[in-house]
Amino acid sequence: MEYVITHYPDKKRFETKMDGVTAFVQYRLVDGKLDIIHTIVPPAIEGRGIASALVKYAYDYALANGMKPLATCSYAVTWLHRHPDYAQ
């Protein structure tokens, strides 16, 4: 499934809405790295691949802008382990 994901640089978030509910990843920029610090998908919309789509979108943005992916959030850490091509 494809999601409409919007970047809000002023809030350091990537967001999407499903059924009127907002899911997001929060990040910080550290030494040329985009560090995902929170991945939030409310229970009402869990289980649809939203977290993975948000993390991928954020890391694609990082790579396209000369940054390296970094993960503090446990979900993003696991995602990077499952997608080692992003962790290089």
Polypeptide structure, described:
The chain is built from two helices and five strands. With 88 residues, it is α+β, with helices and mostly antiparallel strands. The protein has a five-stranded mixed beta sheet. It starts with 5 loop residues before the first strand and ends in a 6-residue tail after the last helix.
Helix vs. strand class = alpha+beta
* Topology pattern, helix = H, strand = E: EEEEHEH
Total beta-strand segments:
5
- Mean pLDDT over all positions: 96
Helix content: 25-40%
Strand order of the largest sheet: 1-2-3-4-5
Shape: globular
Biggest beta sheet summary: 5 strands, mixed
Please tell me how large the radius of gyration is. Answer: 12 Å
- First-residue to last-residue Cα separation: 27 Å
Q: Report the portion of residues in β strands.
A: 35-45%
Helix count from the secondary structure assignment:
2
The poorly predicted ranges are none
Brief synopsis:
By secondary structure, the chain is α+β, with helices and mostly antiparallel strands.
Tell me the layout of helices and strands.
Blueprint: E1 6-8, E2 13-18, E3 21-30, E4 33-40, H1 50-64, E5 68-71, H2 74-82
Parallel strand pairs: 4-5
Antiparallel strand pairs: 1-2, 2-3, 3-4
Annotation keywords:
single chain; 88 residues; alpha+beta; globular
